[in-house]
Amino acid sequence: MTSIHPSIPRTTRRLPPLSSLRAFEAAARHGSFKRAADELAVTPTAISHRIRVLEDHTGLRLFVRQVRQVTLTDAGAQLYPVLRQGFDAIESVLARLTQTNRRDRVTVSATHAFTAKWLVPRVARFQALHPDIDLQLHASNETVDLDAHGVDIAVRYGNGPYPGLAAEVMFADAYAPVANPMLGVRSVTDLQTVPLIHFDWKKASAANPTWETWFARTGLAWHPSRGQLRYSDDGHAIQAAVAGQGVALLSLALVAEEIAAGYLVQPFGPAIPGYTYHLVMRADPQPSAAVLAVADWLRHESQPCKPEQSAIL
What we know:
The protein is an alpha/beta fold. It is built from ten helices and ten strands.
């Protein structure tokens, strides 16, 4: 192995075990084997044993052991400041190095579909703005506990409220029929000739934006086509629509990229209201600068997603 400093001759250090030096320094600083043991998470007996090893190694008596305290001998008094300064120097350099290399990481949790269809396409813009922050996306369709999962920010979909958390509205969602343009769907009457793509909401509610709700709110008769496709995940329903399997009633926020790219079209309206996306954080009076930066970025990105009220029934 090549020496880090080739000009310096290689030597063998004749030092006692590091554990004995740490035990001695802590005991000397506290004037107590017990307090040294508490600091190093060992027993007082272990501290006494390690110091005995050091004394045997050096052939020196380092402490005068008394009933409730220990005091340094002359030899111990000479050794202590050298070790203290050495450990202080090591701690200072390590703190500086780790601080220099440490990067801020912020974890954002959202549903699988929102993560894939809304967050991921925008990550490059965040990285361009904040190259010093590591953004970690946590996808889950379950409501995660921010503390238990180490999550800094969650995007929640619903009406709220969210007790014990700081929550604010990002944007209200809207749903409308979308289809692959190759299907040639242009009017409501075409819905009778193509399959309708459904996805099943986790919780049943009359407020869920479904095909039945869309027909009821538009005042049109509900005449389902013979072929119906049902998915348990809205991300799969989006993929099915892009693949041309039928017409789907989907979140316009989640299919914005597909519409912009021409993979899907919204042949007719109206759009009906969905739920609301909320930005949720811990009720922390002083979140980190990195968390605040991610929250500001999410607010900025959500502005174009706020639908025109006239487009929603």
